[in-house]
TrEMBL record:
It is an enzyme of class 4 (lyase). One of its GO terms (molecular function) is (3R)-hydroxyacyl-[acyl-carrier-protein] dehydratase activity. GO terms for biological process: fatty acid biosynthetic process; lipid A biosynthetic process. InterPro entries: FabA_FabZ, FabZ, HotDog_dom_sf. This is 3-hydroxyacyl-[acyl-carrier-protein] dehydratase. It comes from Brassica campestris (Field mustard).
Length: 185
């Protein structure tokens, strides 16, 4: 099992700025969370078949093959969905939050340890239930997605996963995901 620490570390960045044009500078301390990388984008691309512009997982910070994964999507104004959703108040579309969470679930399920990880095997959506969007996700947010296997019927290749997504520790989206393995269909 590859694991990131549950406690968020923070990185400080000291900046100096001048006040009202005088030559006196004062330090500005910015704090932001850092997450250790367990799986980088190159390793993710070896597992998931998705590519730009539809690869919605930037890195994995925790995973247990066949059980769970915690992944990150850095949301930027450069994401191709922002110009149209919505021009005056850009927010990440809910359907893309769901897709990003499903991709994080795919990382957990498409590992060689659970019969995945080959070009011939993918997991596809079979259904989603109990989806709730709690808060909007905007440019600059870090979407942290936890996908946990609830039930797996290996004979039929069916997986039921529970997903939760957070921004800054606040729940923004949750739901239940049903997936089916392409190898079993």
């Amino acid at each position: 099992m590859a694991t990131a620490s549950n406690s968020q570390q923070s990185t400080s960045l000291a900046l100096h700025c001048s006040n009202n044009g005088d030559n006196v500078s004062s330090p500005i301390e910015l704090k932001f969370p850092t997450f250790p990388t367990v799986m980088d984008i190159n390793q993710i691309r070896e597992i998931l078949p998705h590519r730009f512009p539809f690869l919605l997982v930037d890195r994995v910070i925790e995973y247990t093959p066949g059980v769970s994964a915690v992944a990150i999507k850095n949301v930027t104004i450069n994401d191709n969905f922002f110009p149209g959703h919505f021009p005056d108040r850009p927010i990440m579309p809910g359907v893309l939050m769901i897709e990003a969470m499903a991709q994080a679930g795919g990382i957990a399920m498409l590992q060689p340890e659970v019969g995945g990880g080959s070009q011939d095997n993918n997991f596809f959506f079979a259904g989603i239930d109990k989806v709730r969007f709690r808060k909007p996700v905007i440019a600059g947010d870090t979407l942290v997605m936890r996908m946990t296997l609830v039930k797996f019927q290996k004979r039929f290749g069916l997986a039921k996963m529970e997903g939760k997504a957070y921004v800054g520790g606040s729940l923004v989206c949750e739901g239940e995901f049903m997936m089916v393995s392409a190898a079993s269909s």
